[in-house]
Write a structure and sequence with these properties.
The protein is of the alpha+beta class and 67 residues long. It is built from two helices and three strands.
Length: 67
């Protein structure tokens, strides 16, 4: 499950500027774990939360424009 919905695909270089989980947490004034949880559960749509099949680790891509 990810928080990336069709129709919201980044389409320019400025749309592709990425932000770290740490930076997003600072800007939203929440803990890093909160950002990760919200993204996994689809509560916020600021990028992509992805877990590969058979793996337990998640990866997070946060886009500046969506933050």
């Amino acid at each position: 499950m990810d928080s990336f919905s069709s129709g919201n695909v980044p389409n320019s270089n400025s749309d592709l500027q990425r932000v770290s989980v740490e930076q997003a947490a600072l800007e939203l004034n929440v803990d890093k774990a909160t950002i990760r949880s919200w993204m996994r559960h689809g509560y916020i749509h600021i990028g992509i939360a992805d877990c590969k099949d058979g793996k337990s680790r998640w990866s997070y891509t946060i886009y500046r424009k969506w933050l």
